[in-house]
Amino acid sequence: MTRQPTGSSGASGQTPPVEERLAGRLAAGAPPRKAPARTAAVTALHELGRLDLAIYRAIAETPTPTLDRPLRRLSDAADLSRLWIGIAAAMTAVGREGRRAAATGLAAVALDSALVNIGFKFAARRARPDWDAAGVPDDRRVPMPHSASFPSGHAASAFAFATAVAQSAPGAAAPLLMLAGTVGYSRVHTGVHYPGDVVIGSLIGASVGRLVGSGLARHWRRSP
After folding, report:
1. The predicted structure's pLDDT at residue 113
2. In whole numbers, what is the pLDDT of the chain averaged over residues?
3. Residue 191 carries which DSSP code?
4. Which of 17, 16, 1, 15 minimizes the C-alpha distance to 141?
5. Which member of 55, 73, 162, 174 lies 3.0 to 4.6 Å from 180 by CB, making a disulfide possible if both were Cys?
6. Rg (CA), the chain
7. Within its chain, how far is the Cα of 40 from the centroid?
8. For residues 222 and 73, which has the higher predicted lDDT (pLDDT)?
9. What is the dihedral of CA 158, 160, 165, 167, to 10 degrees?
10. Which of 126, 121, 146, 145 is nearest to 204 (CA)?
């Protein structure tokens, strides 16, 4: 397993994991003996934080030379939503239904990107993983983003697009959701996100995609 000799640009010591920060805020409330539910929530958050880090390290330490290059390329392809823009462009060739589905997907990506990058990332401010400490192989690595780690913008955009398109083109749901899931995993595999970042990003994206997709689907049905 190869490692970069220099330090990671995502030093994990800058801020505690988001689970730990939430646990700290909860623990600062009522005394534990007077708030058993709060105590249980604090304990669960601490455990989730440890589990998040353990899964990240386990993936980093597992040799997967056959998967490294394609997952790295897929992760790169999803930068700036280029992958989803390309798929949307291809869908426009299918006809009016394809154009509507493509427009729905891109509208969901636009709303999702604003929500994640302006809202959630700013509020959470979770530092990126320390891929040197975890031993992420050089062959997997993509450029470490400078934005906050939580939630994953790539995963959010992927599921926003896939879920929104599925509302107008149900036949495309399965392949797009599988692709979205692979994009999300690629962000952990390449070392730039914790699993929890991807899980929450996927949930946010799917929620936005369903909201935008169902709304525009009703609009398309009313249109001649």
Report:
1. 95
2. 86
3. T
4. 1
5. 162
6. 19
7. 27
8. 73
9. 140
10. 121
Give yes or no for a contact between 138 and 200, defined as CB atoms under 8 angstroms apart.
no
Token pair 């891929």 in the structure block, residue:
131
Q: Is the dihedral of CA 154, 160, 163, 164 positive or negative?
A: negative
| φ, ψ of residue 126 in degrees (nearest 5) | -75, 130
Alpha-carbon distance of 105 to 85, in angstroms, equals 9
Residues 49-77 have a mean pLDDT of 95
Whether the per-residue pLDDT at 96 is higher than 50: the answer is yes
Q: Largest Cα–Cα distance of the chain, in whole Å?
A: 63
- Position 22 scores a pLDDT of 63
Ordered DSSP codes for 122-187 = HHH-PPPP-HHHHT--GGG--PPPSS--SS-HHHHHHHHHHHHHHHH-GGGHHHHHHHHHHHHHHH
pLDDT digits (tens, 9 = 90+) for 121-141: 988 888 999 999 999 999 999
Q: Quick one: how far is CA 220 from the chain centroid?
A: 29
pTM of the model: 0.84
The label of the residue with tokens 């595999």 reads 189
Domain residue extents for the chain: 67-222
Stronger pLDDT, 118 or 161, i.e. the higher one: 161
| C-alpha torsion 96→215→180→46, nearest 10 | 170
